[in-house]
Design a protein that fits this description.
By secondary structure, this protein is mainly beta. It is 8% helix and 46% strand. It has a domain at 43-113: Jelly Rolls (Sandwich), CATH 2.60.120.10. It is built from two helices and nine strands, in the order ααβββββββββ. The strands form two sheets. It has a five-stranded antiparallel sheet with strand order 1-2-9-4-7, with no helix packed on it. Strands 3-8-5-6 form a four-stranded antiparallel sheet, with no helix packed on it.
Length: 120
Amino acid sequence: MNDQTKEWEGTPYPDMIRGLPEVEMPFEGIRAWLHQNSDTQIVFFDIEPVGVVPPHSHCAQWGLVIDGEMKLTIGEETNVYRKGDWYYIPEGVVHSATFLTRVFVIDFFDDPERYKKKNG
C-alpha cells in the first residue's frame, strides 16, 4: 500500500474525483472536491463528525449521502440521513446540518459560484 492509498483509506472517492480541484472550506474537518460548468457545481464532500454547520441559505441544492449519518434541518423539518438517502433544499430555504459520523456526500448546486477552488 502506498502513502496515497493510506491517506485515503476508507473513502469511496476514486482518484478521478480526488484529482479534481479542492474547495476552499470555512470549516476544519471538511474536505471537498469541485466539478463545475458555467451554470452549476457538483461537490464531493468528505466530512468528519465536526458538529453543527449553522443555519444558512443559498442557491438550490440536491444531495446524496454516499456513506455516514447526518442530521439535516431544512426549513422547519429535521431528519436523519444515511447511506442512499437524498435531499433537496430549495433556493433561499434556511438549513443546517449536524454530522453524527464521518459523512461522504455529493451535492449538486444550482450556482457555479457557490464554492471557490483552493488557491495553490
